[in-house]
């Protein structure tokens, strides 16, 4: 029997409808319009499409959105000055600097320059520290989106054996931390695997839930997982080009084979991806509430 498909597209749509109502209420009752600025340096095609999607989503929800595009050779000092400007701008509640940045710019320095109260990506050390302590903060968008997918799909995480493949600061590490906390979609037993894990099959076969975020197309196959596993596939890998020129995408999990053994699985595309932008919007609305004491 094939797995239940956990649709990030449908879940994101439901959350956006909730946010649309919340933004309308903030605007009408309190005169508060959440504001987001996205800053893009250079002309990476993928980054341009991400930023365009973020702005389009913000406008659809009633969030004030600004986009600043800088030349690839923009000095680091100019970018830092722009961040400082928006730190002081009361119309802006969220600042997002699209990564990656050109090599001459220190990404850490730029991210650290963002006011933690406007760090809607959840990458500032202050927010990461609060996340580790279980305090209220802006959660990193992709892990936050995965939590929502698990909760809204009715996946039981309490006491579950969860194997996370990938140890990035953006997904793997925060995901592990969030799922071991005493919270909704938490209370799990976590195993974090990576490129130096000696026997990854041993861990995968024990998993009740697998979260794959390693960036290797079809790395995890059906013979590595047990019957009834829940699979969240974060990977988005370009594996070819269709006749119409559109990229053919694959996840980190061999979807076609694994779905025959899994209880539930996310597709690629249409799984985790739509959730990331949606949680960015959720964080922006949260930032607006906090800035106005609501």
Question: Can you walk me through this structure?
Answer:
The chain has 294 residues and is an alpha/beta fold. The chain has two domains: 30-116, 3-Layer(aba) Sandwich (Rossmann fold); 141-273, Rossmann fold (3-Layer(aba) Sandwich), CATH 3.40.50. The protein has ten helices and eleven strands. A six-stranded parallel sheet has the order 1-11-8-7-5-6, sandwiched between helices. The protein has a three-stranded parallel sheet with strand order 3-2-4, with helices on both faces. Strands 9-10 form a two-stranded antiparallel ribbon. A hairpin with a 5-residue loop joins β9 (237-241) and β10 (247-250). The protein is globular. The model has no long low-confidence stretch (mean pLDDT 96).
Short account of what is shown:
The protein has 10 helices and 11 strands. By secondary structure, the protein is α/β, with parallel strands linked by helices.
CATH superfamily of the largest domain: NAD(P)-binding Rossmann-like Domain
Task: Please estimate the helix content.
Answer: 40-55%
Structural class: alpha/beta
Provide the CATH architecture of the largest domain: 3-Layer(aba) Sandwich
Counting structural domains, the number is 2
Report strand %: 15-25%
Sketch the major β-sheet: 6 strands, parallel
Give the strand line-up of the largest sheet.
1-11-8-7-5-6
Instruction: Give me the CATH fold name of the largest domain.
Output: Rossmann fold
Gyration radius over CA? 19 Å
Globular, elongated, flat, extended or rod-shaped: what is the shape? globular
């Amino acid at each position: 029997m094939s797995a239940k498909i956990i649709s990030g597209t449908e879940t994101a749509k439901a959350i956006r409808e909730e946010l649309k109502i919340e933004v309308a209420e903030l605007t009408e009752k309190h005169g508060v319009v959440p504001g987001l600025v996205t800053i893009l340096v250079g002309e990476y095609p993928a980054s341009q499409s991400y930023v365009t999607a973020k702005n389009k989503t913000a406008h659809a929800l009633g969030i004030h959105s600004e986009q600043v595009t800088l030349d690839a050779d923009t000095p680091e000092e100019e970018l830092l000055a722009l961040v400082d400007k928006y730190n002081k701008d009361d119309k802006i509640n969220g600042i997002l600097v699209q990564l990656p940045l050109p090599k001459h710019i220190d990404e850490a320095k730029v991210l650290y320059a963002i006011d933690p109260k406007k760090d809607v990506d959840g990458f500032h050390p202050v927010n990461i520290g609060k996340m580790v302590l279980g305090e209220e903060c802006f959660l990193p968008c992709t892990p936050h989106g995965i939590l929502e997918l698990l909760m809204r799909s009715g996946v039981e995480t309490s006491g579950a054996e969860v194997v996370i493949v990938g140890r990035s600061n953006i997904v793997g590490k925060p995901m592990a931390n969030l799922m071991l906390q005493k919270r909704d979609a938490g209370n799990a037993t976590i195993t974090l695997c990576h490129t130096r894990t000696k026997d990854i099959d041993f861990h995968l076969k024990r998993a009740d839930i697998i979260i794959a975020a390693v960036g290797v197309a079809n790395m995890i196959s059906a013979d590595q997982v047990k019957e009834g596993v829940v699979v969240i596939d974060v990977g988005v890998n370009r594996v070819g080009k269709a006749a119409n020129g559109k990229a053919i995408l694959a996840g980190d999990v061999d979807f076609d084979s694994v779905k025959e053994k899994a209880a539930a699985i996310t597709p690629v595309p249409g799984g985790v991806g739509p959730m990331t932008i949606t949680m960015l919007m959720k964080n922006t609305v949260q930032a607006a509430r906090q800035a106005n004491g609501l």
